[in-house]
Amino acid sequence: MTNESVMPDNELLREFLLETHENLTLLDSDLITLEKNPTEKNTLAQVFRTLHSVKGTAGFMGLVKLQAVAHAAESLLSKLRAGDLRFNPPIATVLLRVVDAIREMLSCIEKAGNEGLGDYTALIADVDRLRETGSGDLPVTAPSAHGSLAQPLLSTAPSVSSALSDVTMMTSAAVASSLSSTSDPGLSPLPESPAEARSANVADSNIRVDVSLLDKLMTLVGELVLARNQILQYSELNSNDSFAGAVQRLNLLTTELQASVMKTRMQPIGNVLNKFPRVVRDLALACGKKVHFEVDGQDTELDKTLIEAIRDPLTHMVRNAIDHGIELPETRIQRGKSEEGRLRMVACHEGGKVIIELSDDGGGIDVGRVREKVLAGNLVSPELVSRMSAQEIMRLIFLPGFSTAENVTQFSGRGVGMDVVRTNIEKIGGTVDIESQPGQGTTIRTRIPLTLAIIPALIIVSGGQRYAIPQVSLLELLRVTPGQSGRGIEMIHDVPVFRLRGMLLPLVFLSEQLRTVAGEESTDVYNIIVLQADDRSFGLVVDAIGDTEEIVVKPLQKQLKNISLFAGAAIMGDGRVALVLDVPGLAKCARVISATRDRELMDEVTTPETIVGTGQSLLLFATASAGQMAIPLSLVARLEEVRGCDLEMLGSRSVIQYRDEILPLIDVVQELELLMRGTHCPSDASDKCESPAGIPVIVCVAENQKIGLIVDRILDIVHWNDELTTPGRSSRPGVLFTAIVQGKVTEFLDIAALVQNSMATQKIMTNDLQVVQ
Amino acid sequence: MTTSRQFCTFYLDHQCYGLDVLRVQEIVRWQPLTYVPLAHPMVRGLMNLRGQIVTTIDLRVRLMLPPLADPNSALNVVLQTDEGSVSLLVDEIGDVLDVTEQDFERPPETLQGVAREFIIGTYKLADRLLLVLDPDRVISLPAVSH
């Protein structure tokens, strides 16, 4: 919240801004609480205290307008506190307006150094009118119990309220005692009331720390971890007991230190969620709807930068839920629901990610309407829509320009909402999922990583040195060997290209771009990384492809800034530095995306692909005894290679640990045998377990669960046009049909049947699995 | 009245150079470097200095001296700059010397070329000459000619 325009030496003003911003957030939720429960004395006292301190500091700093507004609100509150008035919705509204006005002035002060030109006399008049009349409601008789000392001090005639606040300002002891008396009405006014003690505690146990200092701490701890790892390795060679003991302690301490430092950047998500009750209230009022809002999991912690980043997307989602999701009270009653809609926001940790779920019990998403709107807006071609499942159509609401609202309202309907939500969430490495039951409601589930500082990257080798490529721009990895599918790299004049599923993929040799010497790998085998830059894809040829690693990207210093090929550098697990490639910069250097002529040419190539959409993409693989087989690529989640020693047995089923989940494996050959004969053929799984080479596994999603297919070899991904070939009859159970693909008879696997069969035979086992998951 | 300054001294090709001690952050022995393709030849690579990524500049290349026989015997003089630390590779490290302003002299007019650009002046010590380098000029990229 540091701002250059605020004079840097004016520490006091900065402190005031920081503190008041925090307090205002609390005020919002406190006022809503009060609206629901007007007799909540503690909350009222808190609101009073906040406004009072704003007024006091504003006066001290010479911020006249701010002081006047806060003063008016304080006078109104003092009457409430004394019991002369009863808290009601008009009062809540006007107080919330006060909060907004204060916020407005604060941001002016932050930006321009003054209170701005806003005129708040009308607001002050409104506040004063309410103070006199209580919005026309008769002043409710005061609750019997209130502080004996507060009474004479604060409930004097309304006309002398300004004099009264002067008194409260000057005699802080009196204020303290009057506060304690209201918060604890039964007791005599002692200065050491619980409320007072608590606030003192909060202030004492917290200090403000610059984020850059925390970043530095984090880097140092990262290095400490590396040094620790080196010492650990060394200690294994060295069998000295006392040394081993010290290393052990160092090990534990480092781990703990790392965890604690990571925690310092974490903030409870409540900082964002707490503002939503106010948003919901305002929106619901404006839309004429009744909404009951629940928040859960405010304590869930995530990185500070992410907290800022999710604020807007969440607001959009809440707006959408109220504006489009929850129905008008009359409609709800007609549909047999309670008049008041329920909106629930839950945050929690799950598998190293933070999940924020927003669910409403409104009308749900009408798939038919989504389809209509998408077609009307010409957002997706009709053929494509006709082949989509309901779930896929629902996801179309994330398309740019999509809106089902008939009218553009102040809050939503401009067709940017959900698109913005998705882009913003994806920008921070998160995902958005949507689930909806027509008439029952909608749930939007957002998954975001715990921290932004770390990004996943693919490590590659070129010229004997490692480089990192951010995973966001990665499309797929190819390894081209000469014999495979008969084609290698082809040349158009001196420009290398590769045919990828019928499209020409321009190739860029990284060693050429970096002007380094290529590694001495045989020139017949090419490792191609298909990358996306802008809307164009190209293949980057590298010497070797390594693992993916989580890296922290740091900027390069000015001596190296002019090299557009690098986005920064990162420190790898072994302590060495690796350069991070800048994919758009690389594409520009290699002229993949610069020339306009190039662009037009590419577009011509791209169009046929979309038209040929009548067919489908197939993943071809081979099994030892059954020849070439295929499954639709749409079912495939990932291709993996697992080591034999990673296979674990659960009953008679092999499983692997995959991304913190248990992935059941099906050996395709065995399962087909089983389907045909009803018996298990002699297992060769044990051979595989011993073989040191990786076993190719196709991770696919079938019957709503992830499953791994063990195959012998993964061959290719091809585009197959089913209109040009006539499928043959099924050869055996577990096979849908046969057809000729790439000149070979290919069996199309019926994954659903395989999975069902395997489930049936392993029923008990599966149940166990689900429990574990 | 004499004012005295402190210089961190080091050697390149048997010649003694000095940098203002207040700008020198630390001396580190040879660290493995990550080569940066396409960079100016004076940039030898990137070094991991306790989690900070530091650009390492070969002072011999910068001053157009012949390369060191065993490049891995070089030492890093880490400088503090506005943009974080930058390291200079030198042959050998000398002492931190106190010098008096009386002994200072501007470089002679006959000194030409790159040396003139970087050398602020010399301190005439009893047994040798100490050449004082301008830290900011040494670490900035030469103006691009094309």
Any overview of this molecule?
The complex is a heterodimer of chains A (773) and B (146). Chain A has 773 residues and is of the alpha+beta class. Chain A has five domains: 11-204, HPT domain (Four Helix Bundle (Hemerythrin (Met), subunit A)), CATH 1.20.120.160; 211-264, Helix Hairpins (Orthogonal Bundle), CATH 1.10.287; 268-449, Histidine kinase-like ATPase, C-terminal domain (Heat Shock Protein 90); 455-612, CheA-289, Domain 4 (OB fold (Dihydrolipoamide Acetyltransferase, E2P), Beta Barrel), CATH 2.40.50.180; 615-772, OB fold (Dihydrolipoamide Acetyltransferase, E2P) (Beta Barrel), CATH 2.40.50. Chain A is 43% helix and 24% strand. In chain A, the strands form six sheets. In chain A, strands 10-14-15-13-12-11 form a six-stranded mixed β-sheet. In chain A, strands 21-25-26-24-23-22 form a six-stranded mixed β-sheet. In chain A, α10 runs antiparallel to α11 (241-264) and α13 (276-287) packs parallel to α14 (304-325). Residues 1-9, 136-203, 410-415, 595-614, 681-689 and 764-773 of chain A have low confidence and may be disordered. Chain B is mainly beta and 146 residues long. Chain B has one domain (4-135): OB fold (Dihydrolipoamide Acetyltransferase, E2P), CATH 2.40.50.180. Chain B is built from three helices and eleven strands; from the N terminus they run βββββαββββαββα. Chain B has helices at 59-62, 114-118, 135-139; strands at 4-12, 15-20, 24-28, 43-49, 52-58, 75-81, 84-90, 92-100, 104-105, 119-124, 129-133. In chain B, strands 8-1-2-11-10-9 form a six-stranded mixed β-sheet. The N and C termini of chain B lie far apart (49 Å). Classes of the chains: A alpha+beta (773), B mainly beta (146). At the A-B interface, α10, β17 and β18 of A face β4 and β5 of B.
| CATH homologous group name of chain B | CheA-289, Domain 4
Characterize the biggest β-sheet of chain A.
6 strands, mixed
**Residue share in helices of chain A?**
40-55%
Largest interface: A-B, 26 and 27 residues
Structural class of chain A: alpha+beta
What percentage of amino acids of chain A are in beta strands?
Answer: 15-25%
Oligomer: heterodimer
Distance from first to last alpha carbon of chain B:
49 Å
Global shape of chain B: globular
One letter per element, helices H and strands E, the order of chain B comes to EEEEEHEEEEHEEH
Strand line-up in the sheet with most strands of chain A = 10-14-15-13-12-11
Q: Under the CATH scheme, which architecture of chain B would be assigned?
A: Beta Barrel
| Structural classification of chain B | mainly beta
From the alpha carbons, calculate the radius of gyration of chain B and give it in angstroms.
15 Å
Count of all domains of chain B: 1
Radius of gyration of chain A: 33 Å
Instruction: Count the E strands of chain A.
Output: 29
- Percent strand of chain B equals over 45%
**How far is the first residue's CA from the last residue's CA of chain A?**
42 Å
CATH topology of the largest domain in chain A: Four Helix Bundle (Hemerythrin (Met), subunit A)
